[in-house]
TrEMBL record:
It comes from Mammaliicoccus sciuri. Belongs to the CPA3 antiporters (TC 2.A.63) subunit E family. GO terms for cellular component: plasma membrane. Keywords: Antiport, Cell membrane, Membrane, Transmembrane, Transmembrane helix, Transport. It is found in: Cell membrane. The lineage of its organism: Bacteria, Bacillati, Bacillota, Bacilli, Bacillales. The chain crosses the membrane at residues 29-47, 59-81. The keyword Cell membrane applies. It is a multi-pass membrane protein. This is Na+/H+ antiporter subunit E.
Amino acid sequence: MAIQVLINVLLAALWMMLSDTYTFGAFVFGYLFGILFVLVALPLLPGKHLYLRPVWKSLILAVIFMKELILANIDVIRIVIQKEIHNKPAFFAYPTDLDKDWEISLLSQLITLTPGTIVVAISDDKKTLYIHSIDFSDIDSEVSAIKDSFEKAIKEVSIR
C-alpha cells in the first residue's frame, strides 16, 4: 500500500514539474491523475485494493461512531432527567470475532468512549470483552448492536 501512495505523490509532483505550475490546484489535479494511474496499474502493484479503500472505510467508521455517540448521549440524558430511576445497570460478556490486538483495542476504546458503556476487562484469550452498561435491556440486543455497528466497521477497515 505504501508504494501506491509513493507512486501517486511522485506522479503529482511530476505533473507539477511538467506543467510548470506549482500550485495546490496543479498538485490536486496531478494527484487525481495519479489515482487513475494507480488504479490501472493495480494488478502490477502490491496489495489487492487501492490504498484509499482503508481511508474510506475509516471515515465510515468515524461516522458510525459519531452516530452512536449522539444516540448514547441522548439515552444518558433521558436517564439523568427522569424523576425516578428505571434503568437497569449490568455487566455482560461480549464475545468478539476480532483477532488483531489493534482491532480489539479500537473496539474497546469505541465502546468506552460511548456514554453509558465501559469495557472493564478483556479475557486472556482476547475473545471476550467484559462490559458495564448503564441501562441493560437484554444481552442479545446489546451484543447484536455492537456487532452490527462497531465490530463490522472495524473488520471492514482491516480488510486489505
